[in-house]
Design goal:
The protein has 182 residues and is mainly α. The protein contains 8 helices and no strands.
Length: 182
């Protein structure tokens, strides 16, 4: 005898469901969408603030990937996540390129985002401050950004490929079943 469960199946939050369905409607094959995601995630970890979207579009165009997904994924790096991302990529890069003297990296990276009054800097000011950091910070930051970006981009590629592939198959099957019912 089959036993019935008393628990209901949970449905995702409506906003989460709409976001998921929006992602499934991106144009292109699952591989093109996944490549766009991987490119955007990779570029998001590079310290090229102000040029990340441009670079993502160029790379997505060259690789025939979804440009909209690449641009959206770049926004992983935003004013709220920039400091933890850059600290992480710096530490990874420093592992491969040890700096000669100890540096207060957190304070120096924070100066790239905000002025001494706590006001957010615009993109041009951020680029000036980033370039003023010097090679002791910039080289490990770039190397760490590439390493972390490649790893995160690879993971994003495979996750997106699975999610888009399964999601689109699910929608096709359910649309077909609904059309048969009516």
């Amino acid at each position: 005898m089959k036993r019935q469960s008393n628990t209901r199946t949970r449905r995702p939050h409506p906003r989460l469901r709409r976001t998921y369905e929006w992602i499934l409607r991106f144009r292109g094959s699952p591989k093109q969408v996944a490549r766009g995601m991987a490119i955007g995630v990779f570029v998001a970890f590079t310290p090229l603030q102000g040029f990340q979207m441009i670079l993502a579009v160029i790379l997505a165009t060259v690789t025939s990937s979804n440009r909209a997904v690449a641009i959206a994924a770049v926004w992983i790096t935003n004013p709220f996540t920039m400091l933890p991302i850059y600290l992480t990529t710096y530490r990874v890069g420093r592992f491969f390129v040890p700096a000669s003297s100890p540096i207060d990296v957190k304070k120096r990276l924070l100066s790239v985002l905000m002025d001494e009054n706590g006001e957010w800097l615009n993109v041009a000011q951020q680029m000036r401050e980033l370039l003023a950091l010097g090679t002791d910070i910039l080289i490990p930051l770039f190397i760490g950004g590439v390493i972390v970006g490649l790893a995160a981009g690879g993971i994003a590629y495979f996750l997106t490929l699975v999610v888009i592939g399964r999601g689109r198959r699910y929608l096709r099957v359910h649309r077909k079943a609904r059309s048969i019912e009516h």
